[in-house]
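Marked as duplicate of an earlier ticket. Keeping the data here for the record.
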Amino acid sequence: MIAEQSNAKLQAAFFENLHRETTEPFSYSERAVERLRHEWIARQVAAAASGRVLDLGCSRGQLTAMLAQLRFDLTAVDVAPSAIGAARTRLRDQSVRFAAASALALPIASGRMDFVVAADGIYSWNLERDDRSRCLDEIHRILATSGRVLFTEHTRAFRFPEFVAEIEQHDFAIERVDYLYDRPWYQVESWFKMLQGNSWVRTARRSNAIARFLQRVGRVIGPRASRHICVLARRLTSRQS
């Protein structure tokens, strides 16, 4: 248990240092594929959510800003205080509650949330299996009866079944599984990185048209052409034995 707690703390320190030392980690605002991912998530939340919504792992608030336009009762949490500070500044004119906290111990009352967005979490937060289990238990705890959660994860296609199985093992019923067919874009982006000093490369990375074209290519190939799996799940009303 000591080692597991130490790993979670190390990851928290990693993300805090990343946000403290980098203006925008992961370049969410610049990269078209990330903007399109956030827009897709916001559309799913608009269609499926109600009442009180939590953006879990909100980073610097890029997705949070889109969710704030939906006029839900919105809370945003991230493990990195520096990220929360940046998100507060970004959304200073919006009525969003912010908290710096671990996903393994959320400062939220049981049954408080109607919908949780866990975008690129669980695996992307570099949690070990036991900590992922604690995180999933926390999401289950804070959800209202039959509340929903949208998980998205950036990982290899061979891990998709494992990801879905972990969610199901923590008393969630899977309502829908979607794929973003974005692996071709990430492959092309890896080529861009070798030429990232060129202005045309920066323009290409920002191009929604290129990102959408490569997504259409991915759809032809199928789910194995996805780096993102998206799972909409409902909290079961009672814990299984």
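See parent ticket for discussion. The CA atoms of residues 128 and 136 lie 12 Å apart.
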